[in-house]
Amino acid sequence: MVTALNQGAVEQVSSLRDEFVKAYRFMLMGRLLDEKFASLYRMGKIYGGVFLGRGQEALSVATAFYLKRGDVFAPLIRDCAGRLAFGEPMLDAVRSYLGSPLGPMRSRDGNVHRGRPREGLYPMISHLGAMISVVNGALFAHRFKGIEGTVGATSIGDGGTSTGSFHEALNQAAVEKLPLVLVIANNQYAYSTPNSRQFACKCLLDKAAGYGVDGQSLDGTDLDATLRALKQAVDAARSGKGPQMLVASLLRLCGHGEHDDASYVDSKLKGSTLGRDCLKVAEEALLREDWADARALEDWRNEAAHKIEQTVAQVRREAGPDPYKEDWCALASRHLSEVHEQGPGE
Amino acid sequence: MSITYIDAIREAQARALADDPRVFIYGQDVGSFGGAFKATKTLAERFPGRVIDSPLSEDAMMGLAVGAAVEGLRPIIEVQFADFSTVAFNQIVNQAATLHWRTRVPCPITVRLPSGGTAGAGPFHSQSMEAIYAHYPGLIVMTPATVEDAYSMLLEAVAIDDPVIFCEHKYLYNHLKAERLPTEAMPTGKARIARPGRDMTIVAHSAMVQDALAAADELAGEGIEIEVVDLRSVKPLDTDTVMASVARTGRLLAVGESWPWGGVTAEVVSRVACEGFGLLDAPPQRLNAKDTPVPAHPDLWAAHRPTTRSIAAASRKLLRS
Fold first, then answer.
1. Which of A74, B156, B157, B307 is the most buried (most CB within 10 A)?
2. Cβ A175–B102 below 8 Å, yes or no?
3. Helical residues (DSSP H) of B47-88, grouped into ranges
4. Contact A137 B102 (CB under 8 A)
5. CATH number, domain at B127?
């Protein structure tokens, strides 16, 4: 909860309020955008799957919230809100989901596999854990080039912590003392697999200790808690204290993807504090602290919904990709590309 | 003065480091130790902070290279043995190989794979991985068979804006010598006529070029003139040079050190059969290793892979058909 308010200084209150409101509005935008994608999915307008961040928006936004220009962010599938907070244009998200060739992936890749690596937003591949060492590489390169004070943040779920890539990369970050912020959303299920079948340590944070990495656990349903934890972790990484690992507990309030009804989720978990909706928790805090009234919440929601509708309407007017205009060349060195005969012509 | 194949690899890296401040080398034991095969000997001292020991983590090594490449560097990754690149396979084929196609951001990484068999090395230190990587779009696969190519192709690999799988053959490391480093180089993607001949064509790459040349020497004593084509890179694969050779000789034997299912020899035969069937006077033939893991004992190993003797025997048989 927003306990800092009670500590006093007006200046601090004002900035805390601004931060909280700003973060909340990214959460709200992410939630509504996700809901739009889910709706378009049900209409059959989406190519591929839709993966929502419902219940994880507070953590996702906080992960990106303290990153600056020059930092690197490698989001994962439930980071629609965090992407917006990092500065991803909403158009990128909508164009990727709707397959527009004007999107950053030019219809070649879709949905959550979007990014702008030159601007620090790395596009994920599907193999979990694989982005962590890539972020390490970016941070290594910054140091190599004499660029100081940058941070790289990346997210992963409880399931992803079981991969070899995760362990190799966490160890690598520790050995190289890289300013990596590794955020684990323990949303209790990897697709349908519960924590009990995923790991046997008491807490995922134990994995940080094993590699000599600083870590902290937090309540992922509480925007204030996630902002505090991420601010501390990003500051620590930025000031040269090496990699930081965060383990946030929460519950995925949706299926793995929109194709999944999540019938396997334990109803006890849904009723527990883990099952709180972080958006509602943040709204309650806003009202309680008198940082917003019901009217403001309504206005923000309408504003976000309007922007989403406008963006979707724009993208739905865009033509799809033309296979005859594709160059079908995977290489940057075009002169080394092979042209293969596809068999006799028609 | 004579320069070995491994010297050439070391000198190419030294030159790349000297010429381009974006280049660094990352791999196990590559630092002050100088690498398992001494391919980076003295480089850590000569280029401080740019020849860096990695933990024993091939996946993370390759992931780090991708991130560094995105940020504008030109990593050279030494995988201690080509066999271990399977641990990095995901980062190579899914991350590095797709990056430019997906994002337009080039991924200039050189992955050095000490490849191929040596006596006693066994199943996990002997593999030739070039066909597997060549299968994936987005990768260049080089297989130098000479000291000169080891040098010039490695320099070119570092300069290319795509991930390059550089398959350097361990047997050639100290067995091949040249008088001096080359000052000129053929471009990547061009095969080389390693030996001209009129009676049949052997297409080979990497160490098999040397075995093919030895077989050709042997058959020359019998009045048979074999043309040996050194592919140099298996991706891109210079079909034109292969086809032109087959047009001259009418017979094709494709020789590869790796396993028989698919692979470079199958690709060569397939291309010639599809595009140059009319050039052939006899069915094209392939000679590969046996379809088992690579055996450790030298006697078994020598029977597992093509040798000068088995290449000569296959050539005689093809010439009789």
1. B157
2. no
3. 58-70
4. no
5. 3.40.50.970
Tell me: do B15 and B133 sit in the same domain. Answer: yes
**Full DSSP string of A296-327:** HHHHHHHHHHHHHHHHHHHHHTS----TTT--
Say whether both B10 and B145 belong to one domain: yes
Residue of chain A minimizing CA distance to B188: A336
Residue A301: exposed, middle, or buried by beta-carbon count in 10 A (0-12, 13-18, 19+)?
A: middle
Q: What is the pTM of this model?
A: 0.96
| The token pair that represents B319 in the structure block | 């010439």
- Averages of pLDDT over each 10 residues, chain B, 321 residues: 95 98 98 98 98 98 98 98 98 98 98 96 96 98 98 98 98 96 94 98 98 98 97 98 98 98 98 97 98 97 97 98 86
Q: Which amino acid is at B68?
A: A
Domain ranges of chain A: 11-336
ipTM exceeds 0.90 = yes
Determine, for residues A169 and B91 on separate chains, whether the beta-carbon distance falls below 8 Å: no
Closest CA to A238 of A310, A180, A161, A163: A180
Task: With beta carbons less than 8 A apart as the criterion, state whether A110 and A48 touch.
Answer: yes
Q: Which two tokens stand for residue A340?
A: 């293969």
Q: If DSSP codes are grouped into helix, strand and coil, which group holds residue B142?
A: strand
Residue B98 domain-assigned (yes or no): yes
A59, A7, A28: which is closest to A292 by C-alpha?
Answer: A28
Which chain B residues are within 8 Å of A127, Cβ to Cβ?
A: 90, 94-95
Residue B115 sits in the same domain as residue B206: no
* In a domain? residue B183: no
The H or E element containing residue B292 is: none
Please name which of B311, B292, B314 lies closest in space to residue B122, comparing C-alpha atoms. B292
Is B229 inside any structural domain? yes
Q: Which residues on B lie below 8 Å from A88 (Cβ)?
A: none
Domain at B197, CATH number: 3.40.50.920
In this complex, do B90 and A175 lie within 8 Å of one another by their Cβ atoms? no
Closest partner residue to A108 among B66, B95, B102, by Cβ?
Answer: B102
pLDDT tens digits along A303-345: 999 999 999 999 999 999 999 999 999 999 999 998 765 555 4
With contacts defined as CB-CB under 8 Å, which chain A residues touch B138? 330-331
Range of the domain at B252: 192-320
CATH class of A11-336: alpha beta
Residues B167 and B201 in one domain: no
Boundary (domain end) residue, out of B178, B212, B247:
B178
Q: Which residue has the tokens 């999107």?
A: A103
Q: Which of A108, A141, A165 lies closest to B59 in CB terms?
A: A165
Chain A residues close to B103, C-beta within 8 Å: 104-105, 115-117, 123
Same domain, B27 and B167: yes
Give residue A344's pLDDT: 55
Residues B118 and B214 grouped into a single domain: no
Q: Which residue of A has its CA nearest to B92?
A: A130
Indicate if B156 and B31 belong to the same structural domain.
yes
> What is the C-alpha separation between B245 and B191, in angstroms, rounded?
11
Please list the pLDDT of chain A residue by residue as tens digits (346 residues). Answer: 333 333 343 444 457 899 999 999 999 999 999 999 999 999 999 989 999 999 999 999 999 999 999 999 999 999 999 999 999 999 999 999 999 999 999 999 999 999 999 999 999 999 999 999 999 999 999 999 999 999 999 999 999 999 999 999 999 999 999 999 999 999 999 999 999 999 999 999 999 999 999 999 999 999 999 999 999 999 999 999 999 999 999 999 999 999 999 999 999 999 999 999 999 999 999 999 999 999 999 999 999 999 999 999 999 999 999 999 999 999 999 999 987 655 554 4
Q: How many domains does chain B have?
A: 2
